[in-house]
Design a protein that fits this description.
The chain has about 180 residues and is an alpha+beta fold. It contains 5 helices and 4 strands, in the order αβαββαβαα. α1 crosses α3.
Length: about 180
């Protein structure tokens, strides 16, 4: 005969809750980091006694104050909505606790030109590769036509449509 299960109690530390919240916030789209709530907190973090960005209180339920920085160019309201949703879901899923309130303080915007320059460099490389592949393809086709049969002198050359709309606009001559 199976034994009856006895109701128990689980204890979750503040640090565990903060770690879950920190992971949820950092994995949210548009969040570039955490900010400090005050100069005193900044000094404590600089010494290594405190971690920035999250204040937790359990007065009448679980209340969170999040101090974050957001990437420049993304909608701040959308980032805050996504952070709120991610934090509530994570705590409900991992701890089983409902959050009474989440206050999100956006301390500033962070401009990251390095990431933008990398994206532009990748885009330029992709363009060069596409143009090079089109040139190689047309040279190979010409070699194959010349080896098998030559088109008639008065027949117009057959035009092949470009692979995508973007390459068609790049092949046009400047006016």
């Amino acid at each position: 005969m199976p034994e009856r299960s006895v109701a128990g109690k689980s204890i979750v530390t503040r640090r565990a809750i903060v770690d879950i919240v920190r992971t949820a916030v950092q994995s949210s789209y548009g969040v570039t980091g955490f900010a400090d709530a005050s100069l005193a907190r900044r000094l404590l973090r600089w010494i290594g006694l405190d971690r920035s960005g999250i204040r937790l209180s359990k007065d009448g339920g679980l209340h969170l104050d999040l101090y974050i920085t957001v990437a420049f160019g993304v909608p701040v309201a959308e980032v805050a909505r996504q952070v709120d949703s991610a934090v509530r879901y994570s705590l409900r899923h991992y701890v089983g606790a409902e959050v009474a309130g989440v206050a999100i303080h956006v301390d500033g915007l962070r401009y990251q030109p390095v990431a933008i320059e990398r994206a532009e460099a990748i885009e330029r490389t992709d363009t060069v590769e596409r143009v090079g592949q089109d040139a190689d393809r047309s040279a190979d086709e010409a070699d194959m036509r010349g080896a098998t049969a030559r088109p008639a002198a008065n027949a117009p050359a057959a035009k092949q449509p470009p692979a995508d709309g973007a390459t068609a606009s790049r092949k046009r001559k400047p006016r």
